Amino acid sequence: MSLQRRLVAVMALLLVTGLLVTDLVTYTSVRSFLFGRADDTLASSEELAFNYLTFAATRHNPVTVDELSRHVSTDVYLIVTNSKGHVVMRRPSGSPTRPDPEPALRATIPVQRVLHIDSRHFGRYAGTFRPDPDAATIGSRGDRNGQYRAVAVTVPQGTLFTSLSLNPTNDTLSSLRRVELLASLAVLLVMGLLALAVVRRGLRPLRLMAGTADAIASGDLTRRVPEERLGTEVGRLGVALNKMLTEIEGAFAEKTASEERLRQFVSDASHELRTPLTSIRGYTELLGRGGFSDGAGQRRALKRVEEEATRMGGLVEDLLLLAELDRGRPLRAEPVDLHRICVDAVDDSNAVEHGHNLSIAPGPPVTVLGDGERLAQVAHNLVRNALAHTPEGTTVSVVTGIDAGMGVIAVTDDGPGIDPDQRSRVFDRFYQADPARSGAGTGLGLSIVRAIAEALGGSAEVAPAPGPERGASLVVRIPLVLGPVSADGLTPRAPAIPARWPA
């Protein structure tokens, strides 16, 4: 059974129970009131008739029906019998033209020897009805459904029977039962429809959530559930679900992007490895078939095989390093002087003829927290990238310093520069820049730079080169060491260099 049906069924059951209890209490209270008032009326009328008959007997006055009617209300039926049980006087109740049927007197009606009236109970109709023990309920002659409430007492003339018709009381209770039944059915119908409408309206957000969940299960991760008021449980649930769906969508998007990057990475790696493998295979096949008749040709072939093997080995090492960084392998955390590392990188590059104007700006130590070996690799890759992708005669400058609590390496050149639409891809794996920056790299150098920087809590970015030339500037930021450092004579914090870093 659905939640809506269960809620409506429970509300209907509670409503029916409440109506039954209300109707039962109302009926019982009204019945007690009516029967209590009937016994009260019967007792007071009996007292009036008893006093009149006793007074008439002591004065030896004749008793007539008219005189009796002047003393006792016509709501009660009065019958006086003699000692032999014969009726000597009868005063019907009701109107003179349409008197009520005669009560069917029975010998089982208790006859009081002395009239006893407890006036403390007169007018008390509330509470549970307690019938008068001296009264009896009898039928009527000529009306099989008629009922009377009757009492009897001994009077000087014989026995006085005082009877009160219960037909009005029974008719009132019958009408009350019909009214309660119809009213309860009407209330049950109206309240049931209202409950159904309220429940349907209350569960509407849940139905929409279920539809959204079905759409999401079908692959539409952009769907969101409607958000109700935050003060309601459904509203809080909707907000929580939307947050969860946003996280799930982001996770799926990241997963998809990661898989796409992995596929592209595998494809590019396969392509890059296939080139040296093809060269090695070609030269080895030629050597095996005797394709080189002289020793000089064989030596050139072996040298090419060695060069391609070395290139492939370097490529494999770079791929293994990137794989380790992708797995989140922690790097060493030790004080490292970025300026000293950059000086070494510039000196190593200047030891080889390259045709560029490569220099490093002098400056104080810049102490960062990182892996010295990997940071040296970052500096060398940045310098080699600038030398490999700019024409001869280009000026390449390396600057180190501090900016916003980060140690900074900026490698700037005045070469052709990088197109704005290519800046976002410079640090991608296997990406080769514009053909104007011709080189023979693998496309992994800057990827390694960014991976190492991010593994150390820093960043790597491309920024416009300062100055009138177009040029390019690569900036790497590494967190500084916090607190005093005394090992190897490194200063805890380097003074900020008065220079504007590329934004």
Key traits:
5-stranded mixed sheet, 6-stranded mixed sheet, alpha+beta
Concise summary:
The protein has 503 residues and is of the alpha+beta class. It has helices spanning 3-58, 65-71, 167-217, 233-288, 295-326, 338-350, 372-388, 445-455, and strands spanning 76-81, 87-91, 111-112, 136-139, 147-155, 158-165, 334-337, 357-360, 367-370, 395-403, 406-413, 459-463, 472-479.
Q: C-alpha Rg, in Å? A: 56 Å
The average pLDDT value, as a whole number, equals 81
Which strand-content bin applies to the residues? 15-25%
Name the overall outline: rod-shaped
Order of helices and strands: HHEEEEEEHHHEHEEHEEHEE
| Terminal residue distance | 64 Å
Q: Largest sheet at a glance?
A: 6 strands, mixed
Structure description:
Helices cover 48% and strands 15% of the residues. It is an alpha+beta fold and 503 residues long. Strand 12 and strand 13 form a beta hairpin. Helix 1 (3-58) runs antiparallel to helix 3, helix 5 packs parallel to helix 8 (445-455) and helix 7 runs antiparallel to helix 8 (445-455).
